[in-house]
Design a protein that fits this description.
Elements lengths: L10 E3 L2 H6 L2 E5 L7 E12 L2 E8 L7 E8 L5 E5 L3 H18 L1
Antiparallel strand pairs: 1-3, 2-3, 3-4, 4-5, 5-6
Length: 104
């Protein structure tokens, strides 16, 4: 008798922000309202029922990507929050790696 296990993927690809706002976003620092940053949406995904956006800077030479949690405050009101919890960040990073691996 041979048992096979299929690992259930808990990651789902999304495009909610890109569909509503386009591929480029301008974020305003809430503490310093005069500072704006332009980002490009690289990926959107859902991990364990939470929506995340992976953003990269549109201008400049920064090769880093940033993980934001997308909070829905109504139909057209989406807010981005930095992921500061290390375990949550690792979980999203692992899900992103899985998504990239299985999508290619």
């Amino acid at each position: 008798m041979r048992l096979e296990f299929q690992e259930e993927r808990l990651t789902k690809k999304l495009n909610i922000l890109e569909h509503k706002l386009g591929q480029e976003l301008t974020l305003v620092d809430e503490e310093k309202m005069d500072q704006e940053f332009k980002y490009q949406i690289l990926k959107e995904l859902e991990v364990d029922g939470r929506h995340y956006a992976i953003l990269g800077e549109s201008e400049g030479n920064d090769p880093d990507a940033y993980i934001f949690r997308v909070m829905n405050h109504g139909d057209d009101d989406h807010r981005l929050e930095h992921v500061v919890d290390d375990m949550e960040w690792d979980q999203v990073a692992d899900a992103l790696d899985e998504m990239i691996y299985f999508d290619d």
